[in-house]
Amino acid sequence: MIKFFFDQLTTWFSLLTGNLAFLTFLFAVIFGLLGLILLVVSLSNIKADQRCKDWPGVQGKIASSRIEKVYVRVRGRSSARYLPVIKYSYEVNGTAYQGTRAGNGMNYGSHLTKMGAQQWRKRYPAGKEVMVYYNPADPGEALLVKFTLENIFGFIFALVLCAGGIYSFGMFIYYFFFLHYPFFPG
């Protein structure tokens, strides 16, 4: 039993270290999974952009604008990220509302650098009059930006990753079947 386990372990180790087919399969899985995840996220954000494209706008005012420093763990290290916290008020049909959502998706969140968060804060300083777009079915749901190019760029990047995964999988098929087993035609 121990010999069988050791033989299996050495087989997998040789695959990991010296087999080009395995490496291309590994790249295919990594690129493919990352691409699919990013594709789902970016499509969700684009769909949210489309859903709110016809929302009406009203004049609002930035109540407060600050940057919150948060720490996340990246590869075992604590790393600082910056979150712009923008609060705004607006009125729809005589009812006052408050919101904190700037836009849909990847353009706004804790992934920002300090400079990126400062740009958001500079764009929306406290006291500034802004256009606030609200959901007519639920006026409490609102945002400041209806459409962002970052969601389109995320979608394009996801397609590139998926294409890399498909290419790597094709290379895996080529290396594994056509080079490893010479009896296949080609």
Essential attributes:
single chain; 186 residues; alpha+beta; OB fold (Dihydrolipoamide Acetyltransferase, E2P); five-stranded antiparallel β-sheet; elongated
CATH topology description of the largest domain: OB fold (Dihydrolipoamide Acetyltransferase, E2P)
User: Which series of helices and strands comes N to C?
Assistant: HHEEEHEEH
Shape: elongated
Strands across the major sheet, in which order? 3-2-1-4-5
Q: Percentage of helical residues?
A: 40-55%
The profile of the biggest β sheet is: 5 strands, antiparallel
Coarse structural class: alpha+beta
Number of strands: 5
In DSSP terms, counting alpha (H) and pi (I) runs of 4 or more, how many helices?
A: 4
Structural domain count: 2
The mean pLDDT is 81
Q: Tell me the name of the CATH class of the largest domain.
A: Mainly Beta
* Unreliable parts: 182-186
Radius of gyration: 25 Å
Account of the protein in words:
By secondary structure, the protein is an alpha+beta fold. It has 2 domains: 50-146, OB fold (Dihydrolipoamide Acetyltransferase, E2P), CATH 2.40.50; 148-186. It contains 4 helices and 5 strands; from the N terminus they run H-H-E-E-E-H-E-E-H. It has helices spanning 2-18, 20-51, 114-123, 149-179, and strands spanning 57-74, 77-92, 95-99, 129-135, 138-143. The protein has a 5-stranded antiparallel sheet. Helix 1 packs across helix 2 and helix 2 (20-51) packs antiparallel against helix 4. The longest helix has 32 residues, at 20-51.
